[in-house]
C-alpha cells in the first residue's frame, strides 16, 4: 500500500504541474486553455460568491490556488484508479498492470485536457467530430505520452527506493515545483527592477486596441518593430489580461468600461432586437443598464474625453467630449457631445479623411479615429482620456493564415494546409503592419502626455489560429424554400413580416435552433399560440426528416423539441458531411424549384484568425513599478483601477479589483483604495437605438468578420 500511496503523491504532483507550470511559464495554448477553465469557474462562482470573494480569487494567488486544486483533483484521480486496480488484484505492489492502469488514467485525463484545449482552437467543432477525427489522434498521442511519463517516474522511483532516496527525491520534486512556481512571467530583457516616481497622477490615458495579443507583440518587440510598446513596458508593469466569456467585443469593451459582467451591464451581442420597430439593429450605448466609468467620473467632476469607444453611439453628455465610433456616418445624429463642438470636430475629421496618406492595407476610418483621439488629447488635456482602435482585430481575422505561414508555424501549416507563396508575399506582413501603426499612435500619445501622466495600454482579448476546416451552417435556405421565412430585398436581413420560423444561431454551430417568429407584423402581429407553434414545428420536423441530398445523405441527423425560457423551438443538427460530395444538392420533394446546393446549408469559413481569452496589458506612469509583472489581470479590473488612479472611490459591487500589484509600496501607502457601496443609485433604463441608414453598413462589416449571419 505504501507504493500505492506514493503513486498517488506522484500523481498529485504531476497534476500540480499540469495545473500550474503552463500558467506560470506562459506555455502558449496550454495556458490559454487554463485561462478558459478559470473564466468558466469565475462565471460559475460569480453567481454564488460575493464580489469581494470573487475579487480575492482574481489575484495571482487566487488563480494559482484554483489551478492547483484542479491539478490535485486530476492527480488524486490517478492515485484512486491505481488503488482500485491494486485492491481488485489483491496485490499491494505496482506491477506492469498497475502501471498500465495509471498510464491509461493519465491518458484519458490527457485526452480530455487536450480535447478541450483543441475545442478552444476549433471553437465551434462538434464533440462528435472531435472524437471521430482529431480526437482519436489526440487520445493515442496522450496515451503514449502518459505511458512514457509513467515508465520514467516509476523507473526513477524504483532506482531511488533501492537506495532509500525515494522520499527525499519526492521532497526535492515538490520543492522544485515551488521554485518553478516562483519564476516570473517573461521578464522584459531591458526592464530593470525598481519603481517610478510616486507623485500624484494628474492625467490617465487609456488606449484600447481590439484583439492585440502578446503572441504577436512579443516577437515583434524582440525584433525591434514596436519601440514605443517596448519603452512603455520598460517604464511600467505588463502582462496578460483575461477576457470574459463569451469573447465578443461589445460585451468585453462594456465590461472594461463598467467593471461588470454581461448579465449586469446588459450588452449581450453585436445585434439587438428593437421591439418597437420589429427589427434587429447594431448594439448601441443605450442598451447598457449600468453606469460606465465616464458617467461616474463626470458625476465626480473629473474632466474626461472618450474617443471612438466600441458601440458608444449615440454619444452621451459627459463632463468633457465624447466622439462616437460612428463619427464618419454623417447620416447619424448625436455623433459628438457636446453639440457645440460638432461643427469643429466634423470639420477636422473631414480634413483628416481627405489629407491623410493611406497605405495599401490601411482603413481610412481607423486613421481618422486615431487622429480625432489625438486631437482631443492635445487640445483638451483632460484628466482622463479613453481612446480605441479596432484595426488589429480585423486584420487578424482576415490575414492570420499568411502571418502564420510567413513565420513558419508548423501547426499553422497543418491547420491551414498549403498557402500560395505569392499570397504570403503579398499579405504576410499585413498583421504586423497593423501593430506597427498602433505602436506609432502610442508613440504620439507618449509625446503628448506630461510627466505626471499614467498610460494604460490594453486589448479586450487575444488572437490565434482558426481552423479553415471550420464550417458555417444555416437552415434558412430550406425554410425559405418551404415558405416559412423570407429575406429583405438585400438578401441578407430577415423580413420578419413574412417569416414564421427562422434559424437563430450564429453560423458556426452544427446544432441549429429554429424558433417560431413571435415578433412578426401582419397576420402574426399577436404572435403564435403555443399549441399552434408546436404543431408548426412538428410539421417542420417531418419535412427536415425527409430532406436528403442527391447522394442520399440526410440533411439533418438529430432533432428534438425544446421549450426553454427563450420560447418554443426545434433543435436540429445539420449533417457536417454534406460537403464531402462536390456539387451535391438538396432536393425537397414537397417543394417545387431547382435543387438547393448543399454548400448553401454548409460552407467553409474564409477567415483564418479568431479570438483568444488573453489580451495584453501595459501600465506605466507615476507610482507604477518599472519592470513589474501582471499575472492575474482581468478586463473587469480596468474600471476599478482607473477610478483608483483618478483618486475616486471604487464600488463594492464591481466584479473587478484594483491592480495594486502594478503600483509601488510608496504609492499604495500614499493613496489607499477608497470604496463606496455602489454607484448605481438611480435606475438606468436600457433602450435600443432606432434604425438608421447606417445599420446596413454596420451589419455588412459584422458579417464580413463572421460575427453575424
User: Which percent range fits the helix content?
Assistant: 40-55%
Strand content: 5-15%
User: Which radius of gyration do the C-alpha atoms yield?
Assistant: 28 Å
Oligomer: single chain
CATH topology of the largest domain: Alkaline Phosphatase, subunit A
Helix/strand/pairing class, anyone? alpha/beta
The CATH C-level class name of the largest domain: Alpha Beta
CATH homologous superfamily of the largest domain - what is it? Alkaline Phosphatase, subunit A
**Average pLDDT across residues?**
76
In the residues, how many domains can be counted?
A: 3
Uncertain stretches: 24-29, 115-135, 180-196, 519-526
Q: What shape does the CA trace take?
A: globular
Describe the structure.
With 709 residues, the chain is of the alpha/beta class. The protein folds into three domains: 2-182, no CATH class; 194-467 and 609-704, 3-Layer(aba) Sandwich (Alkaline Phosphatase, subunit A); 471-604, no CATH class. It has 24 helices and 27 strands. The strands form eight sheets. Strands 2, 3, 6, 7, 8, 9, 10, 22, 24 and 25 form a ten-stranded mixed sheet that branches. Strands 13-14-17-16 form a four-stranded antiparallel sheet, covered by helices on one side. Strands 15-18-19 form a three-stranded antiparallel sheet. It is globular and about 75 Å long.
